[in-house]
């Protein structure tokens, strides 16, 4: 039997599978009417900096990458947002679900800290 508070969420359109993550749903129900502050969960990712010369290393590690040369070196990575260009100095990253994406070095440095190799 579904508890009454979960049943109310189900009537609002949430599916039973989503109710397994009830705490998260309830939190979003409580916080959706005002601006709140959130902190990124601590997760570890893999990343490799594109330096303009290490195309082979990135291609071996990232099957979603391809090399194209236009006014200098560039790597294009197929990501969830589409095909994204990585310029020398950018970080090619592998997310927690195995997806690849590109991040500029300054944003990467503000967001991530070194954990180990």
| SS content category | alpha+beta
Largest sheet: 3 strands, antiparallel
Q: What's the mean pLDDT score?
A: 79
State the strand order across the main sheet. 1-5-6
Oligomer: single chain
What is the overall silhouette?
elongated
Backbone CA Rg: 20 Å
Poorly predicted sequence stretches spanning 5 or more consecutive residues? none
Q: SSE order, as H and E?
A: HHHEHEEEEEH
Portion of residues in beta strands equals: 15-25%
Q: What would your notes on this structure say?
A:
With 117 residues, this protein is of the alpha+beta class. The chain is 31% helix and 25% strand. The chain contains 5 helices and 6 strands. The protein has helices at 4-11, 16-19, 22-31, 55-61, 105-111, and strands at residues 46-49, 65-69, 73-79, 82-86, 91-94, 100-103. The strands form 2 sheets. A 3-stranded antiparallel β-sheet has the order 1-5-6. β2 (65-69) and β3 form a beta hairpin. The protein is elongated.
């Amino acid at each position: 039997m579904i508890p009454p508070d979960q049943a109310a969420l189900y009537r609002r359109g949430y599916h039973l599978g989503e109710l397994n993550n009830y705490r998260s749903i309830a939190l979003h129900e409580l916080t959706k009417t005002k601006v709140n502050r959130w902190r990124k969960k601590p997760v570890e990712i893999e990343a490799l900096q594109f330096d303009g010369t290490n195309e082979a290393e990135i291609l071996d590690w990232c099957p979603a990458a391809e090399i194209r040369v236009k006014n200098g070196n560039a790597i294009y990575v197929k990501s969830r947002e589409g095909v994204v260009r990585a310029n020398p100095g950018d970080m090619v990253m592998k997310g927690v679900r195995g997806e690849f994406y590109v991040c500029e070095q300054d944003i990467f440095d503000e967001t991530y800290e070194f954990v180990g190799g």
